[in-house]
ATP synthase subunit delta
Amino acid sequence: MHAASREAVATLERELDTAVAGDNSVATSAQTGMELFEVVEILDAERSLRVALTDPAAAAGERVSIVEKLYGDKVSALTLTVLKSAVSQRWSNAREFREGLITLSHRALLRAAEAQGQLEQVEEELFQLSRLLEREGKLTQLLSDRNAASSAKRGLLANVLYGKVTMFTEALALQVIGRPENNPIDDIAAVSAQAASLRGKSVAHVASAGELNAEQQAKLAEKLGRIYGREMSIHTEVDPSLLGGMVIRVDDEVIDGSTSGKLERMRAALK
């Protein structure tokens, strides 16, 4: 995102967080998250509306009036407030306005999970789903098909998830599949990272030859926290091909301490 859009999203996130705090935050946040995404689906189908709601030549009041006319009696009070504030912001372009609403939709659902005491669980479930999709190439290919109807892809994923994850994880995953940004694996992992960020943590992706127990994960999180100067959330997966040790990825930095990595470096040095 460009600077103007990033600033708009940051402002809206602060407003949303303030608004959903309270006794009814689970229901309020969940409803807002779902309704915002429904608005995104309408915007995807109506290019002229996207342009009108972000037209810099129009006064903010004019854009707010459009929102009031279209959604005043169709969404909750909080969703309407968020939309009116969103169109009052300055956006770099209509596409980033749409992306901003998606970010807010995800944040609202994650805040609902947090109020329910399930934010960490949702983070882990989304990460494990991204790993499942990486292993199941045929499923991922079906979910990535740009020619397939969103409803069909959502139905397919809903069957996979039914009864296995929280309602928040399912709602977020179906949103991602219905309106992809990049690919299902990266898009779902990105929402998992967004959940970690709400918990004040950065994500460390850890692939190990064997499963790490809770104590090992806690020690690794503490060590990485000292290295990077921030709290870390450990997302683990087992990869027997590593033979031993682990590979750690934080942002774009990779630490390869695996046995297979060491052997590969030895082979390269002997050439």
